[in-house]
Amino acid sequence: MEYRKVYIKDYVQIGEGGNGKTYENPSDPDLILKVNKEGLNNLEFVKKEFDVSRAVESLGIQVPRMHEIVQVGDAYGTISQRIKDKKSLSRICNEEPERLEEMARILCEKGKELFSTPCNTGFFPSRKQQVLKGIEITSFVGRKKLNIIRNFVESIPENDHCVHGDFQTGNIIKSGDEYYWIDLDRFAHGDPMFDIGHLYQICMVYAPMKQVQNIFHMTQEQLNSFWGVFAKAYTGKDDHSEFDRLAGKFACLDVIVRPVFQKSSLPEKIFFSIYIKRLVKQFF
């Protein structure tokens, strides 16, 4: 199949993220061109990104609408709906810290809507099976700890409802009164705690790290507070310590599944090995 060719000289760069850059064509400001960085701009990856977004939208979940795949020089990109005047929940918490509790409750509300949506299990993978695959291929965790983790994963019932895969404050954006989910490449079906464990990992485990604080535009105190409000809203309980312990176990799985999505360098493997030991000791 041939894809329409577009020329970068006709566009103006308007943004840059971890995976690539976004551009606007002044003649059509309602659309944006996204071109991923090298290695993620091949047709296979871009088509998967395009198809996943379309499949998520078909479930009734609000995402920026994908319009077409285009060829940009030797690479490929996507043309999609431009969400105007958007801000992530992270950015709102940074610029208006008095709204942090409001944003935590919104993530809870939108998360529950997402988790209650039946998923297309014929298209989207099982998060549980992804984690079990991660256990098989991981090289930074000892066998004894892997067996402990595997026993826990195998006890988790399969669930046919949606999970985002990267559930956090940067991946839901607000425009007016509307909210949109973005960065959908790890979308799957499974227990909502897989997503919640990821959020716990960021807000409570990685929060002391300056790099994490910079990514989410929040201090360690703000990240910790965000989790506290979210957990209280999600459970409806002032004492959410039991929920926190369960989230900690799923945070461990969030580390284990990482090799399924991307290779780790030696320093990263050492880092994750240290954190797995801490999490297993604390929560298992």
Fold topology:
Blueprint: E1 5-6, E2 12-16, E3 20-24, E4 31-36, H1 43-58, E5 66-72, E6 75-81, E7 87-88, H2 89-95, H3 100-115, H4 127-137, H5 143-154, E8 162-163, E9 172-175, E10 178-181, E11 188-189, H6 193-205, H7 210-216, H8 220-235, H9 241-256, H10 258-261, H11 266-283
Parallel strand pairs: 1-5
Antiparallel strand pairs: 2-3, 3-4, 4-6, 5-6, 7-9, 8-11, 9-10
Describe the fold and architecture.
The protein is α+β, with helices and mostly antiparallel strands and 284 residues long. The chain folds into two domains: 5-81, Phosphorylase Kinase, domain 1; 87-283, Aminoglycoside phosphotransferase (APH), C-terminal lobe (Aminoglycoside 3'-phosphotransferase, Chain: A, domain 2, Alpha-Beta Complex), CATH 3.90.1200. The chain is 48% helix and 16% strand. The protein has helices at 43-58, 89-95, 100-115, 127-137, 143-154, 193-205, 210-216, 220-235, 241-256, 258-261, 266-283; strands spanning 5-6, 12-16, 20-24, 31-36, 66-72, 75-81, 87-88, 162-163, 172-175, 178-181, 188-189. The N and C termini lie far apart (51 Å). The model has no long low-confidence stretch (mean pLDDT 95).
Structural class: alpha+beta
CATH C-level of the largest domain = Alpha Beta
**Largest sheet composition:** 6 strands, mixed
Distance between the termini: 51 Å
Summary of the model, kept short:
Helices cover 48% and strands 16% of the residues.
Question: Which key terms come to mind for this protein?
Answer:
284 residues; alpha+beta; Phosphorylase Kinase, domain 1; Aminoglycoside 3'-phosphotransferase, Chain: A, domain 2; 2 domains; 6-stranded mixed β-sheet; 3-stranded antiparallel β-sheet
